[in-house]
Amino acid sequence: MEPVLKIENLRTSFMTSSGEVQAVRGVSFSVEKGEILGVVGESGSGKSVTSMSILRLLADTAVIKEGSRIEFQGKDLIGLSKKELRKIRGERISMIFQDPMSSLNPLIPVGKQVEEMMKEHHPEMSRDELRKQTIELFAKVRIPEPEKRLSNYPHEFSGGMRQRVMIAMALANKPDLLIADEPTTALDVTIQDQILRQLRELEAEYQTSIIFITHDLGVVAELCDRVVVMYGGLIMEEALIDDIFEHPSHPYTMGLLASIPDVHQDKSVRLQPIPGSPPDMTNPPKGCPFAPRCPYARRICASELPEFTEVGDRHRSRCFLQYPDAPADAHNPFKSAVDPHP
Ligand SMILES: Nc1ncnc2c1ncn2[C@@H]1O[C@H](COP(=O)(O)OP(=O)(O)O)[C@@H](O)[C@H]1O
Ligand code: SF4
Ligand SMILES: [Mg+2]
To answer: What is the position in ligand 1's atom list of the atom closest to the CA of 280?
Structure first.
């Protein structure tokens, strides 16, 4: 099946007074129809810049480098003008962000904002139809008493309800792809769970593909079918959801896993964060970007960037320890030093 979105070798930099910030350094992944893909990584990994590159919602200082490819439903997006991209946005591709206030107009009732979004792409719809569909959408995202809430302003909603309004707006034109950038990060755990459950239901109903960006692997576990793990502007590991938890194959992923509470444990227990901090992308490390923090790093890691190795079905990892010729020793968590089948 043709993927809905295919990104190949995406490289995005910012040209700043202190030099070129190489935010995304060659990212490739695709999203299938009806699939929920998680993009996970610590702050600064390049998740948002990757997603903002798709519809080119980037600062003026940003440059998408030569050779990058972004194909949506078989159509190249890199060659499109900003005007053409605006037409795709909101109709075929929608985005929701951590702070709904940044996308909602504080001076216009929420119902009207959703209606306008629909009308922009469907000018033939009558006022009654627009209103009726907006009420249906609000009911679908479980805004209580939707008819009454249409005339409310954004500030009259709680954070969780505002995010529901955003989801309703994002789904208004039944997009083929929804990009959600940390939409539940600012919400408390109960509300977050409700919204995640709802996104799953909506995905099943609309068959919308979703890219869900988060720094939290726990959220990925609840929602996603597949995941890419990003660090230092690169993908470190990509796998189906069960594989990432059962057979993580990259030390960075293992670090992220150790920093989330066990799914069966009390969620308030925070475990080990990975010591150290992410690299400065003005001067990214020559070798593996995780080398300065990796407990398994060896000499080659600081000087060369590992390629991907296939480590399973739809499972790839960018780490020297997974190379076929990597030694099995006490410092390689992926290869047992003792041959289990002598
Ligand atoms: N407008 C910008 N100008 C300069 N650097 C930026 C800009 N936006 C993001 N960056 C840098 O790009 C890198 C990736 O950022 P981002 O994609 O926002 O990370 P994430 O979403 O994973 O937290 C970071 O080093 C960040 O500082
Ligand atoms: S390539 Fe080296 S530094 Fe990078 S994750 Fe693997 S072992 Fe660690
Ligand atoms: Mg971000």
So the answer is: 25
What whole-number distance in Å separates Cα of residue 234 and Cα of residue 44? 11
In-domain check, residue 132: yes
Q: How many structural domains compose the chain?
A: 1
Residue 59 main-chain phi, psi, to 5 deg: -60, 160
Whether 16 is in the pocket of ligand 1, judged by its Cβ within 6 Å, is yes
**Which residue type, as a one-letter code, is found at position 143?**
I
- Kindly identify the ligand whose nearest atom is closest to the C-alpha of 181: 3
12 in a domain, yes or no? no
Q: How far is the CA of 23 from the centre of ligand 1 (A)?
A: 6
In a domain, 124, yes or no: yes
Residue 65 lies in a domain: no
How confident is the model over 290-326, as pLDDT tens digits? 999 999 999 999 999 999 999 999 999 999 999 999 9
b/e burial code for range 104-125 (CB count within 10 A of at least 16 → b): beeeebbbbbbbebbbeeeeee
Chain segment 56-89, per-residue pLDDT in tens: 999 999 999 999 999 999 999 999 999 999 999 9
> 21 has which bridge partners?
14
- pLDDT, position 167: 92
Query: Which domain range does residue 116 map to?
Result: 100-174
For atom 7 of ligand 2, the residue with the nearest CA is 297
User: What pLDDT was estimated at residue 93?
Assistant: 96
Helix (H) or strand (E) holding 7: strand 5-16
**41 with 281: CB under 8 angstroms?**
no
User: Residue 271: which pLDDT band, with cuts at 50, 70 and 90?
Assistant: low
pTM: 0.94
Sign of CA dihedral 179, 101, 193, 271: positive
